[in-house]
Amino acid sequence: MKHRTFFWFFLPTGLAMLLFIAAPIVSVVMQSVFAPHEAVFETVENCGPFGCKEETVINQDATRALREAEPLGRFVGLDIYFDRGHLAIAEVGEAWRGSDSMGAFFDRLGNLPFYRAIGFTLTYTFVTVPLLILLGLMIALAVNSLHRHLKGLVIFFSLLPMIVTPIIGALILFWMIDSRGIIGNLIIYLSGDPTLSLKASTSLMWISIIIYGIWHSAPFAFVVFYAGLQTLPKDQIEAAQIDGASRFQQLRFVVVPHLMPLVTFVTLIKLMDNFRVFEEIVGFNAQAHATSLSWIIFNDLSGETQQLSSAATTSVLTILGVAILLSPVLVRTWRDFRGRAH
Amino acid sequence: MFLRTLAAAGAMAVLTTSTAMACEIGARVSIVGNEFPAIQTVGAEAKGCTGAEVATNLTADHQKINLPGMQGNPAEYTSAIVANSSIVALMNEDVIRPLDDLLAKHGEGLAKNQLITIGGKTMAVAFMANAQHLVYRADVLEEIGVEPPKTYEEMLAAAKMIREKGMMENPIGGAYAAGWNLAQEFNNMFLGMGGEHFKSGTAEPNVNSEAGVKALEMMKALSEYMNPDFLTHDSNATNAEFRAGNVAIMNMWGSRAATMTDAEGVPQEVVDGFAIAGPMTVGGGDVPASTLWWDGWTVAKNISDEEAEATFIAMMNGIRPEILSDADVAKQAVWLIPGYEPTEAAVGVFAAANAGTIPYPMLPYMGLMHTALGNELADFMQGKESAEQALADVEAAYTAAAKENGFLQ
């Protein structure tokens, strides 16, 4: 394609990307290095149904003057990135100096909101992604070997977990694992411990959320792999069979290598998705046990006082986290691409 | 019965027509607020005005949308229905206007204690009061032979007896869901222990104190008698436990007490045994371990004078004394509207007000403290860290947020 043609061809997409991807990121980065102005307090008498009381309020005239002078707010540079709510540089340093073992250090790290969220997010991401790929592949192979009359129906049911809105799915499972729910009751029966509660235990809550995550995402892997299986050349399989390859060997040396680019694709998408785990935590009411970066953003914005700069900072850190997480896969894809071009 | 219903319907019809004549507005009105029954009533009554459109957006998520919806010029919402906690965010951002001029013109009939004045300016008109107080099963307490608890210590003793008698495994209920609810229960207990959230006159946190530790220890002791899932139970889930007959004593919102046993399928013994009383004290203090709340309406700043006037008239129509002639409406809340006569469901809130319960603090930085408490206390409740550590975490989290928002240097 000529450069000129390419330019006109790409222009609409480029503009849309600028407007909908680049501009919001710039705005979030700006927001994260500016904070609200220092409040000017005054003490006044507040009266209401329960009597009068001297109380502190914000002096609006003085605040308005400050805001008009610097409409963006107070420039704080990277202060918010380094405070306790985010990277907590000072607290991490202190924890490092104050702990005599790695275990104690990680314990203290887990007390800081950002690292606690990262701890759950990474565990969730790295446990669910491989398992959902494996499960998706197994479903795809199973469906592929079904009789064609059955396929439509089975595909429909296999896709249901993905069709159900995540928060609704999470809520349904949340009630099922209640100690009076069907799964909760079953677990109590199986363990023989009547006081066992999934919702009261951090580790059981993590497991529940991870199982939900796999259940919810496996259909995505399944459809992608199923589509890939339809393009599998028959002659290769036949050649392998003639060479005396077992079913497992066919899978290992023919099917999986054929699907490899799709595995990369699913890994990429799901790493990105699962790093932003959110609905599960809200649906499971699990904030006492598990938090994530997206949950922190939501929490910052839903308090009585909205913490916009803090939420913006966590957003930028999320973008950086996704970039770091995806870099190995992206580098690999780039190498494949270069390799193919030569 | 039929005749009475008919007569009531007739009376309502007369009332509605008379107000329709009385309430004429000349500009748009748009109301945002919470969605519990009393506020639904006020919104519906405000909509009775004619001459221009009155829109309402009543939702549990009102706090997330009221500020952005009033920051534009012109503002999307001309009125926000708020409580003493949520008015602070609107005042911090200066999006609501003083009502004194409108009060002089259209405010006749309001009682003095309905006016929320801040620094001499009236910023909101309150129409109902609320508080958390004791809700209990009279039949269960009778069976173990104890009076309704007046203190949290008595509550613990009663819970122990109920469990030992094998009547209920987890007799205490509580909205201890991590987040806003857990923080609110701490606020109650902390104020009851004589604590103050901030060092006097400053935004410096003051919760890591003896009162804070004692408050947390009491909460922990209570939680031993709660459903083990208590950290996921908000007030809805706690009410469900009570309705199901699993809970005998709990601290619950007055605004929810009236309709507690109205739901379908509540066992008869729960309906019959349901009773309410004033809030409890704790640790030998005289101040109840609870907070007082009001709900009221405000008028947006970034709107034309015509819209502000129309909003004021419509909202006055929403809280006019005539709405109380409907028995169902009268029962919905502890109304501050003149002419309100307390129903049976209101005794808890009245007892709270009479016992000198402290109003929820209306401070610019209280919202950040509440958020920090909600995030950091769950670890202690699960036994993962000490009370001192949890409170130190609260102070550290609050300090970081308050610095960022310009409340602390």
Automatic annotation (TrEMBL), chain A:
The keyword Iron-sulfur does not apply. It is a multi-pass membrane protein. It comes from the Bacteria. It is found in: Cell membrane. The chain crosses the membrane at residues 7-30, 117-141, 153-177, 204-229, 250-269, 308-331. Gene3D superfamilies: MetI-like. InterPro entries: ABC_transporter_permease, MetI-like, MetI-like_sf. SUPFAM superfamilies: MetI-like. Residues 118-326 form the ABC transmembrane type-1 domain. Keywords: Cell membrane, Membrane, Transmembrane, Transmembrane helix, Transport. Belongs to the binding-protein-dependent transport system permease family. PANTHER family: ABC TRANSPORTER PERMEASE PROTEIN, INNER MEMBRANE ABC TRANSPORTER PERMEASE PROTEIN YCJO. This is Sugar ABC transporter permease. It comes from Thalassococcus lentus.
Automatic annotation (TrEMBL), chain B:
Keywords: Signal. Transmembrane segments: none annotated. Its main location: periplasm. It holds the Pfam family SBP_bac_8. It comes from the Bacteria. Residues 1-22 form the signal peptide. It comes from Thalassococcus lentus. PROSITE patterns: PROKAR_LIPOPROTEIN. This is Extracellular solute-binding protein. Belongs to the bacterial solute-binding protein 1 family. InterPro entries: Bact_solute-bd_prot1, SBP. It is found in: Periplasm. PANTHER family: ARABINOSE-BINDING PROTEIN-RELATED, DIACETYLCHITOBIOSE BINDING PROTEIN DASA. The lineage of its organism: Bacteria, Pseudomonadati, Pseudomonadota, Alphaproteobacteria, Rhodobacterales.
